[in-house]
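Repro:
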Amino acid sequence: MLGSGTIFPVHDEELAVTPFEIPDWWPRINGIDFGIDHPHATVWCALDRDADTFYVYDAYKKAGETTLYHAAALKKHGQWIPTSWPHDGIIRDKGSGMALKDQFRGHGAFMLRDHAQYKDERGMSREAGLIEMLEYMRTGKFKVFSTLIDWFEEKRLYYREDGKVVDEYDDIMSATRYAFIMRRFARTKPSSTSVRKRPSKPIVGAQAWKTKS
């Protein structure tokens, strides 16, 4: 029995780190929790694979805005970063008839092909994700930029009652969990030098004969 109480009984000081510039070679991934009947939330995360450490370096929560607004905010750290999304992303908007995930894609967001889930028998298990996150926190492998006030506030308010997670004030926590369990799809920043070269002109006539000889 999981009982009642806070879900992440770890002191903020054990998670908080002073903000720093994320190295280009660290893979990144975003996580979003669609604001259907609650605020929309987004987190931006990075992996230090050498130390097996997960970082949350930015977070955002906003209610009462459009998909276009949220998609623009999502891309602020780079349109190349893949975004993990929950199962309700397949719900179709009553007005447009388009799924939420596809609306974000239409606004230029890089959405992962499938909704957030483990690739093994854990599937979409929320408890599996929360337990693994807590393990990372307790072993010093889960870090959050100290400036993310909303993230830490939600973490402190996130709790269980009679063994069940209370679905209130958990928008950023949910977005974080989606990014965390799909971190295997994180990718590094594309090189600025990887520009496609123009095809060279074909060598013809005498020049072609000299090349062959």
